[in-house]
TrEMBL record:
Keyword Signal appears in the UniProt entry: yes
Region (Disordered): 228-284
Keywords noted in UniProt: Signal
Signal peptide: 1-16
Name the UniProt record assigns to this protein: VWFA domain-containing protein
Composition-biased stretches (Low complexity): 272-284
Biased composition annotated in UniProt, kind: Basic and acidic residues: 255-270
Amino acid sequence: MKFAIAFALLASAVSAAPHIVQLEMRDDCVGKRFAVFAIDNSNTVDKQDPDNVRYEVPRKVFEKMSPEADKGAVLIGSWNEGNRVAAPLGPVNNLRWDTPAPGRGDVKADELVVAATTHIKNNVPEEFKDHTAIILLTDGFTVTDGGPTSEVNNAFGVKIARAIHDAAYEGIRVHWGHLNAQHDRRDVSFYNTASRDSGGFFSEINNGGEIAGFVDQVFKKGLTNKDEECRAKPQPEPSKQPETSQQPEPSKTPEPTKEPEPSKSPEPTKEPVPTSSCPAPVVSTVTEKVTETVKETVTAPAPTATGNVCFAPCDAPGAKPLTNVKIEL
């Protein structure tokens, strides 16, 4: 019963949550990270970001960071208050800051970057210098109070590029979120190059719907130098299982030796039929005549192999009848 109640309470809490926070997946290689936001609150940026989108970006970034390991801070630059620390470096899930009133004058973006770099150097141990990042949110304009608006890709822009370069020298990546809701035609290549040279990401943020895309690209690029280093680190290959030694194939049982077939006895040599040297086949006649004239029994030796015994009719020329002769074969 207690389990059912606890499960019901958990389900109701989840359903009541406004959204589900999806933390960034990373391994232990990255360790601690420190992200400091430098937010422009000048007179010109108020026109380029009338919905205060720039103050929602830090929340989205901090939500994707580790609440146990990572820390963040928020600095806001304005003409009347200078570059103040709205939320000092601390755990990302405990940071709170206010949304100030629109500024009246200009904000020197180079000094805002320098202030963020100083805050990191004063609060982050040297061993974590490559675990740090600055996210600059500005419209890329500067204005003298009451004077003309000028673009950053001039002498003032050179100062910003130098400030970003100095931050990169300290191992800090600088990401630039370019606020440009009015879609002014400007050459952004100058500070685009500066931020990318530090290892950071540059993109326009024209409305609230583009926040998620910017944040995703920052993490895809690598929030800090350490992120990219760990991403490029080759993963150890899984240990291969030793191949099982192949068992030799069982020897085939030799086929039984066939018994030699008994050699056939040679057929007895047939006695050659002696060729008759008698002048004519007179067997029937001889038999008849002999039967009639035999009156005595005479034993005669068997004919030799070379001898021939011939019978002829008694009335043949030169024949002499034998009296009382009996021939046994």
